[in-house]
Specification:
DNA-binding, homodimer, about 230 residues, disordered N terminus, alpha/beta, 3-stranded antiparallel beta sheet
Chain lengths: ~230, ~230
DNA sequence: AGATGTGAAAGTTTTCACAGCC
DNA sequence: GGCTGTGAAAACTTTCACATCT
């Protein structure tokens, strides 16, 4: 039994059944729509509208939300502000997370400057690399450090999440270091399946897979078979 | 009926049932493992080994492959070279796709330099932006052009796939332009649900959603509730 | 023995449809 | 009339287990 395939973890945490990962992903979409609606000063929203904006069905919206509680009012809908806050709480967006970026290449740089993270409580507290031509550079106030500086830094600040933008060949090694230093979440851009302890959460962002799945559907939907 | 929710498309293309999108994603993983095995000069591989390396079960590997044909030999396993080629064909990696990048910011630049694309037949043929400070720059032989130059360019080269690395606010507009010019696949990095005609395939890469899902599981797996 | 390919079973997710409340 | 919350049904996906071939 190599990788422990934690299937039915089935933890009866507090009162609520465990939400599926698709539900959590959709929750993020609802959250985004709710932010827009709140900015547009809307008071209430129906599952139908929420579904329309997010590209799913209204029944799905209701089922997803019902996993976490009864947030709506029959005949009326959901209060935009209340629901947005509830979801923020569920997703852990009401607190700060300390994030370290591993890999100061062009992808690393793009992720560092990505506004979406800062806005939602993900605080980029350090950037690491091993390339001496990059170390010491100042990125908008954050200095790129050598990977060896990870240990001393962790003694001062807890790092919750690692973003891995390093080459495939070293991704597992860097992940191991991060995990050894107490990191519990990894956003992995390297095209490798990482092996981590059970208590660590990995989410893969695999650009090749995304492109290949587009390529597949272009063929399925059919056209002339070019060279 | 706003967004046409193409549910049971159920096209009985040739002889084979339609593969689910999870199957296609796993096919990409198998492909990657097979490339490694081929480089390591392995002749044959079992569903068990393939599964181990890709983080799934052997039954799943066999089921996935059986959707497309009988590629293995009982008692023996699969021929590495043959299977890799078969999957390349299924995923459309035996041909070239012309790709245009929209958005020449830091994310665009990172995607432009991403080796994974070039290696697998995705040919970056053009880069567009509307920011005059970027237009005219030479990116390793490719000149960044103004979005207005899309139409003339398409008359010379067919563009199959668009990569959208533009701000949310303009993503839908740019997608519309791309679709109007015959693009049939979109890799979308903007955090918006794009509305496109049925024949166009969109794959979203949403970094905020990925981070939020990590944040959610960190809370679920439990720790002290910090500010 | 060692492996695939595959129906059938089990499990999971989505959709339906309606009671119940505004 | 409008809309949520939810059991039940339908659809889909994964796993099991075994006949079948080397």
């Amino acid at each position: 039994m190599p990788t422990s395939r934690t299937k039915a973890d089935r933890r009866t945490t507090f009162h609520l059944e465990r939400a599926s990962s698709s539900t959590v992903i959709r929750l993020s979409s609802y959250y985004r729509v709710l932010c827009e609606l709140e900015a547009a000063r809307l008071q209430t929203v129906s599952s139908r509208l929420l579904a329309e904006r997010g590209g799913m069905t209204s029944a799905q919206v209701r089922k997803d939300l019902s996993v976490f509680g009864n947030f709506g009012r029959r005949g009326l809908g959901y209060n935009v502000v209340v629901l947005r806050r509830k979801i923020a709480e569920i997703l852990g967006l009401t607190r700060w997370w300390n994030v370290a970026l591993f890999g100061a290449g062009s992808l690393g740089h793009a992720l560092f400057s990505y506004r979406g993270f800062k806005d939602q409580g993900f605080h980029m507290v350090a950037v690491f690399d091993i390339d001496h031509s990059k170390i010491g550079k100042n990125w908008n106030g954050t200095v790129v450090r050598h990977l060896d500086d990870l240990a001393p830094l962790v003694r001062k600040k807890t790092i919750d999440i690692a973003i891995l933008a390093v080459p495939e060949t070293v991704a597992q090694d860097v992940a191991n270091m991060a995990v050894a230093r107490g990191i519990r979440g990894i956003l992995n851009f390297a095209a490798v399946k990482l092996t981590v302890p059970e208590h660590v959460t990995v989410r893969d962002v695999d650009l090749s897979i995304a492109m290949e799945s587009i390529s597949y559907s272009l063929i399925q939907l059919g056209d002339s078979t070019k060279p």
